[in-house]
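Hi again,

Forgot to attach this to my earlier email, sorry! This is the prediction with cytidine-5'-monophosphate bound. I've pasted everything inline since the attachment limit keeps bouncing my files.
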Amino acid sequence: MKRVLISAGGTREYLDPVRFIGNPSTGKMGLALAQAALHRGAKVTLVHCPRSWDAPLGVKAISVVSAAQMQAAMLKELGNADIIVMSAAVADVKPRDYSVEKLPKRSLPENLPLAPVPDIVAELGKIKQPQQLLIGFAAQTGDIITPAKEKLQRKKLDAIVANPIDKIGSGFGSDHNQAVFLDKEGREIEIPPCSKLEMAHYLFDFIVYSRRQ
Ligand code: C5P
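Structure tokens for the complex follow:
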């Protein structure tokens, strides 16, 4: 373990000063990944969205709000990382326009044009060096494996964490999680319900020790 770059939490896309498009991610999985990487002696950079927890001491914490800010921070830090884990839940769309004045409520249902946000991890997948390991997450309901395999390939990831968010006691906001880890060599392992910190350690075992050290 050397230098680990982690993204955490849910991005927010503001349409005016009081409203945003977002998601329920709390960033706890990213926090657990940062703690696990620190425990393993890594130099950790954590790009995080608004959160209710403190970044661990010793971590380089970079605070962002929107997907565009997260993209800029990840691109800036990419060259300083051996392992990149994109655990953030990035909003898929943003309001096309931002209003500095609070928009009248009645204007919203009729007039809220949306625009796509950049796929950050896919951009990182295009430009990363071959020795860098890029890991994504796929939060899914129902069949978690098929979409995770598709994302692993399309986004040029080395591995992906397929994460059921419709199971009790896992996913957004929980201190626990369960997942299937898949990698580009076709390995697939199921991680039963455990704490997010345990899951983070299982993930680093999966991507680092069993692959190349
Ligand atoms: O949203 P989706 O299921 O495609 O997310 C899978 C992976 O892609 C996650 O690692 C997520 O952080 C990343 N992602 C991203 N930029 C987006 C959407 C998702 O980096 N705009």
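The pocket of cytidine-5'-monophosphate is lined by residues 67, 86, 88, 90, 92, 117, 119-121, 136-138, 151 (CB under 6 Å). The mean pLDDT is 94.

That should be everything now.

G.
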